[in-house]
Amino acid sequence: MTERTQQDDTGNGTPDPSKVQTFELIDEVPGTFDGPEAAGPDGEGPDGEGPDGDGSAATEPDAEAGEPAPREPGRAALALASARAAVGRNVRRGGSAVRRRLPTTRRGKVLLVGGTVSVVVLAVAAGVLVDARLREQALLATPAGVRDLEAKPTEQWSIDLENPIASTLVEMPGVLAIAGDAKVRGVDPASGEVLWTVDLEENLSCGPSALLGVGEPSTQEPADPLVCVTSSGEGGEREQRVTVIEADGATKSRELDAGADVVPVAGGGLLRFEIAGGTTEKRPVVVDKLGVPHLPKDFVGPDLTVGVEDAATGKERWSDTLAFGAPRPDSCITYDDSGAPVLDVAGALSWDLHGDVLEVQGCGVSGAFRLDGTRLDDPKDTEDPPADGVDTASFLSLPDGAWVGPDTAAADAAMANDVVHLSDGAAVNLDGHVLVPWATDGRDPGLVLERVGVRTQARSTSADDPGALLWSAPRLRATTLLAEVSGTAVVLDEQGTVRAIDLGTGADRWTLAPKTLSFGDMAWAAESSIFGAYTDGDTLLLPVSADPSGESSGLRLLAVDLRDGSVRWELEQETPYTQLISVDGYLAQVTQHGVVGLG
């Protein structure tokens, strides 16, 4: 059973140690957490609304907070779990031994009380430390997890680069990979020590990595191994090579076809696109009096084969062919240097990769896959694109292994109606589109947030009541879910305001005015002015454009206290946003001069 996480007042940095749930921690199963329920004022949701938005008080029963167990418990986690179990056994055995030797004198009873209290205090302290360590492990396993954001960070180390803006930072297991200057450096993220260096070509593309400068959910797992594609020459003389780099710097390399269209993906894979019949030449298209381009009459485009191969060996893992269907003109057209539209099948091909979910769109072709080859859309539906005319990415990956796709049976296909496909095989039909968190603390809240028209809702993903409406906030017009941490959701609304709400009830907790984030009267640009989200469980770090109007460059790192919304600190930088990444909980950033470690 998945349990919904409520406000966690017992985590790191808790303001009131008396709130710690002491005895429950002793017998807790490692990887889970029992904490107090967080409720809105008088148990009501935002604006006094109940789950149906009718003004009735929320009736959701108290639920315990849950934390998913680590994917693969390592030696440290097993040792901690064993230690915790031993503490519990020793306390129980100690209690039995004391009861068998109860003193009868007043002095003996006083000594007994003191000794028992000492045993309990030590046991509770050990349990709290173990629980905090397990929470930290879950947090640092997320792409947005940071060790400590309490104080303003300073530069801990730096590495100069000849062309830093063109460089890419990629997280590997315990290693920061810096791809740039025709080489890849493996760096200790804590100290900045260069552990190894691999020399490559100038035209270098390594991954899997997040899209640069695009705020989006942090669903990218560490590259294990790192896959780099290099190219040299042009046209028929063009040469391509793929190099696979392990976390210790060991490499394997092989030649690729000159015209191969490939993209590095997770698990040492290489995503490959092949247009049937080879790349077609560009040609002009007819433009009507209104300037609308039209495809040639009876135009039939080529099929597209999509697949993933092992980057090191070239062995095919899977492939699928997307048959040419009914194309839209704009899915087949690009524009030349003079601005004239041209028919360009290869140039119009595009894809979105969100975690392990791939969505492909091209000239008359479309499809969606998991990176293991599982087809997510209907292969028999050749409409372009797959989301029935909705151009935004319609297939997404969620942090807990679930994925989101469009509801093809929805009454109004022109509106976004998502379906959340849970990892246990269950499906939750939404009334609108899901809000995917950019940052989490690694714990499953047991619900998803959705935007429906102008309101925000929460639906259960618990095995007991999947799809149940938990609460609805008619006046919460959330457009982006920045974070889900310790029972709190931090969202960005249509007015450019950052708002924190109780995940369990939808009740408001605090707001951050647009002027605090330099949005001013440019609230419409708020989402494109926030470049990511990072958290240590107590603080939310937002890299924000210093000037959303674009008239001047600069970046602000803004640290917001998750408990009350106060700004803990801010760091103004002259460099524009390039790339900021967390590796094993340590922050690294590309600057105008190279790469620096922040801490």
TrEMBL record:
Kindly list the residue ranges recorded as spanning the membrane: 110-130
Q: Spell out the InterPro entries in the cross-references.
A: PQQ_b-propeller_rpt (IPR018391), PQQ_rpt_dom (IPR002372), Quinoprotein_ADH-like_sf (IPR011047), WD40/YVTN_repeat-like_dom_sf (IPR015943)
* Every Pyrrolo-quinoline quinone repeat domain range: 454-576
**Record-linked Pfam families:** PQQ_2
Keyword terms of this UniProt record: Membrane, Transmembrane, Transmembrane helix
Record region (Disordered): 1-72, 371-390
| Basic and acidic residues bias locations | 372-383
Polar residues bias spans = 8-21
What's the protein here called? PQQ-binding-like beta-propeller repeat protein
| Species for this entry | Promicromonospora alba
